[in-house]
């Protein structure tokens, strides 16, 4: 038993020495990263057209129905470009792979 304990102690000491020789890289705090929203508010000029089209589609065969559009948002062009480039690089030559971008952040 004593021999096994000595062998294990040496391995632990060697691991500690190896870790001490190679310090870990410091991770930057998350405060420096800013989340890029997937959607941004639409321009005020587009509100009327978008709301008329959306309510017409939602009403369907019921012309007496009423709808109130509270928010109109559009896809953030920066987020769309970044996600397209990232997924294109990740897929490489695999045409049948699928990816979902969950979060985008920038410094």
Kindly state the percentage of residues in helix.
40-55%
SS-based structural class?
mainly alpha
Portion in strands = 5-15%
Query: What letter string, H or E per element, gives the SSE order?
Result: HEEHEHE
Report how far the terminal alpha carbons are from each other: 55 Å
Uncertain runs: none
Strand order of the largest sheet: 1-4
Please state the CA-atom Rg, rounded to the nearest Å: 28 Å
The helix tally amounts to 3
Principal-axis shape: elongated
Total beta strand runs: 4
Q: Biggest β-sheet, characterized?
A: 2 strands, antiparallel
Average residue pLDDT = 82
For this entry, give a set of tags.
mainly alpha, two-stranded antiparallel ribbon, 107 residues, single chain, elongated, 45% helix, two-stranded antiparallel sheet, 3 helices, 9% strand
Description:
This protein has 107 residues and is mostly helical. The protein has three helices and four strands, in the order αββαβαβ. The chain has a two-stranded antiparallel ribbon. Strands 2-3 form a two-stranded antiparallel ribbon.
Short description, anyone?
By secondary structure, this protein is mostly helical. The chain has 3 helices and 4 strands; from the N terminus they run αββαβαβ.
